[in-house]
Design goal:
The chain is of the alpha/beta class and 327 residues long. The chain contains nine helices and 16 strands. This is Quinone oxidoreductase family protein.
Length: 327
């Protein structure tokens, strides 16, 4: 029987004011689906992009890319899961800003006993993103010097710890001196403030003029010049977000002029496009957390109905680490 639950939905693109706390109907799970009751939901920048219209979505829509909870019902043909089991997901489709939702079983991952629902909801999207960035997009090797922007964001705090565990020398960028201290505590060997001026010149100084073999940049417009100018010859520029706005259009010749660089704009969906890839990615993430090499940092919690304020705080760089929404 369909049931009515609370959710946050948008009917038009715009500012935080378009986020509406309202009731929606959730039906019974169909073939291959489960009914999931959320216990924790992750907050991510992609939801701001979708709300604002930077990323086009079909309206109306319940936003949210990441969640954890308990299976309440199982549809026909679902194997490997049972009612009452703790599961999580990230990055497959919107709909997490809700008390309950239907979700395809083949896109779920089981949450290990050692990991709480809040941690799973906080790290699945950022953690699996980190995993593909460091282990597939560019395979970080011991001794590599890496520039990672937004070092104390939801992805940043996971990535800097993981980079350190891989034996990298980590240069992180942050917006305040307080965040700089947190970055140092979480794997950064060098921390640069955006307000200090020429980031690329400082990176070149740290690396003896060579630059770094890889830059990971989720900030976008504001850091593009610093990033591209920090990459060593034949190095890789990894642009995986637009927190400050979209990067400018470039001519391919620029990559030649800057040192025969590689430029990529990856997204998680292409790295977990099969159930097998999804399970492998999540398993490695949960393993590195269980080992203690990466310690998740939940910097703030909000009630789901207060997600507008949570998005405002995220966009204005007031948040640290991951943010969790509680239904």
């Amino acid at each position: 029987m369909p049931q009515t639950v609370n959710a946050v939905r948008i009917h038009e693109h715009g500012g935080p004011e378009v986020l509406r706390w309202e009731q929606v109907e959730v039906g019974d799970p169909g073939p291959g689906e489960v009914l999931l009751r959320h216990t924790a939901i992750g907050l991510n920048f992609i939801e701001i992009y979708q709300r604002s219209g930077l990323y086009k979505v079909q309206l109306p829509i319940v936003l949210g890319q990441e969640g954890a909870g308990v299976i309440e019902a199982i549809g026909a043909g679902v194997t490997g899961y049972k009612v009452g089991e703790r599961v999580g997901y990230a990055g497959y489709s919107a709909g997490a800003y809700s008390e309950k939702r239907l979700f395809p079983a083949e896109r779920l991952v089981k949450i290990p006993d050692a990991i709480s629902d809040e941690v799973a909801a906080a790290v699945l999207l950022g953690g699996m993103t980190t995993r593909y960035l460091l282990r597939e997009t560019y395979v970080v090797k011991p001794g590599d010097t890496v520039l990672f922007h937004a070092a104390v964001g939801g992805v940043g705090l996971i990535a800097t710890q993981w980079l350190k565990a891989l034996g990298a020398i980590v240069i992180g960028t942050v917006s305040t001196k307080e965040k700089a201290e947190l970055a140092k505590q979480n794997g950064c060997d060098h921390v640069l403030l955006y307000s200090d001026g020429d980031i690329a010149a400082k990176v070149r100084e740290i690396t003896g003029g060579k630059g770094v073999p890889v830059v990971y940049d989720s900030v976008g417009k504001d850091t593009w010049e610093a990033s591209i100018n920090s990459v060593a010859q034949r190095g890789m520029m990894v642009s995986f977000g637009n927190a400050s706005g979209a990067v400018p259009a470039i001519e391919p010749l620029l990559l030649s002029q800057k040192g025969s660089l590689f430029l990529t704009r990856p997204t998680l969906g292409h790295y977990v496009s099969t159930p097998e890839a999804l399970q492998a990615n999540a398993a490695e993430l949960f393993s590195v957390i269980a080992s203690g090499k990466v310690k998740p940092h939940i910097g703030q919690r909000y009630a789901l109905k207060d997600v507008a304020q949570a998005q405002i705080d995220l966009a204005s760089r007031k948040t640290v680490g991951s943010t969790v929404l509680i239904p």
